[in-house]
Amino acid sequence: MKYPKTDYHCLVDKKVIVTGGATGIGAVIAKYFYEQGAQVFVLDILKKEANELIKLMPSTIKLKMPKFFYCDLLETDSIKNTFKDIYYQYGYLDTLCNNAADDERHNWQNISSSEWDYYQNINLKSQFFCIREFVQFVDNSKGASIICMGSISYLNGTVEIPSYSIAKSGLIGLVNTMAKILGERKIRVNLIQPGWTMTKKQLSKWVNKQARELISEKQLLKGEIYPEESARLVLFLASDQSKMITKQIINVDGGWV
Ligand SMILES: NC(=O)c1ccc[n+]([C@@H]2O[C@H](COP(=O)([O-])OP(=O)(O)OC[C@H]3O[C@@H](n4cnc5c(N)ncnc54)[C@H](O)[C@@H]3O)[C@@H](O)[C@H]2O)c1
Predict the structure, then answer these.
(1) pLDDT value at residue 4
(2) CATH number corresponding to 9-252
(3) Which atom of ligand 1 is the closest one to the Cα of 98?
(4) What is the pLDDT of residue 2?
(5) I want to staple 239 with a disulfide (CB 3.0 to 4.6 A). Which of 8, 39, 199, 220 is the partner?
(6) What pLDDT score was predicted for residue 55?
């Protein structure tokens, strides 16, 4: 599907971190920022995928090739060192998109304590520590925008990913709390909750005939949701067009919940 491009001149030269930007929705978010002339930093554990993605976004007179930083978001020291490295090499940061996640299926009756912790760490805890490191490197005279990627899964009755869904519900508390703390520094914090979004991974692993029937039954707006839908909203929330918008939750789910 072809999406009309919106130009946000205020995003030119902005320094933008996209966690989990090597694949899926994050890769499209990275590409959307690149097309605006922003300097994108992709943080991920998938080196090969990240490098292949970045090759598709060369530097030109107007555009800057994204930079890949290997960062395991399960390790708070890795988060700390990566944000510090980026700041020392490139200067103040403008936007953080907390996008990385893991929605591998797991069963509430069998899940072990360490598996539970793993899903909480990647889907909730890492977002807090990325915010805490990021805000140290924001120019206080300019402010910044933080966009967290949640999910409608804790609202729509999904039962196959309990620790993931519960972690995603915790992001509401994270966004409310951090928006309050950071508002006086002109740092905005908002939450996007996508519906079922057709990434390569979702299509190859879970979107079968039954899933398509469910989507068609539940979404008020018929048709499939692609990563571009969230990416378009991320750009808006990063831009000055939303400069008085903070502490908001926006669902990109075709009206499912
Ligand atoms: N695709 C959907 O249907 C859907 C629905 C609702 C919400 N979301 C949310 O949107 C966001 C993007 O979803 P997606 O489907 O593209 O996810 P994905 O699983 O396809 O990609 C996640 C990315 O995060 C990276 N990542 C995982 N663990 C990491 C770690 N320890 N350190 C660094 N990077 C790590 C992965 O390598 C990958 O590149 C997520 O927050 C997800 O919860 C997606």
Answers:
(1) 86
(2) 3.40.50.720
(3) 41
(4) 78
(5) 8
(6) 98
User: Does the annotation mark 164 as catalytic?
Assistant: yes
119 close to ligand 1 (CB < 6 Angstrom): no
The answer to whether the CB of 254 is under 6 A from ligand 1 is: no
Domain assignments of the chain as residue spans, ordered by start: 9-252
Q: What is the DSSP string of 81-114?
A: HHHHHHHHHH----EEEE---------TTT--HH
Beta strands in 51-185 (DSSP E): 67-70, 95-98, 144-149
Q: Whose CA is nearest to atom 19 of ligand 1?
A: 102
Question: Ligand 1 centre and the CA of 28: distance in Å?
Answer: 12
Query: What is this structure's pTM?
Result: 0.98
- pLDDT attached to residue 1: 73
- Whose C-alpha lies nearest to ligand 1, atom 23? 20
**Sheet order of strands, 39-44 included:** 67-70, 39-44, 15-19, 95-98, 144-149, 187-194, 249-252
Residue 99 alpha carbon, nearest atom of ligand 1: 41
250 within 8 A of 192, measured Cβ to Cβ:
yes
Q: Is residue 24 a contact partner of residue 199, using CB atoms and an 8 Å limit?
A: yes
How much is the pLDDT for 111?
Answer: 98
CB 235 within 8 A of CB 33: yes
Q: How many CB atoms lie within 10 A of CB 61?
A: 4
Please identify every stretch of the chain with a pLDDT value under 70, giving residue numbers as ranges.
none
Looking at ligand 1, which residue's alpha carbon is closest to its atom 10?
149
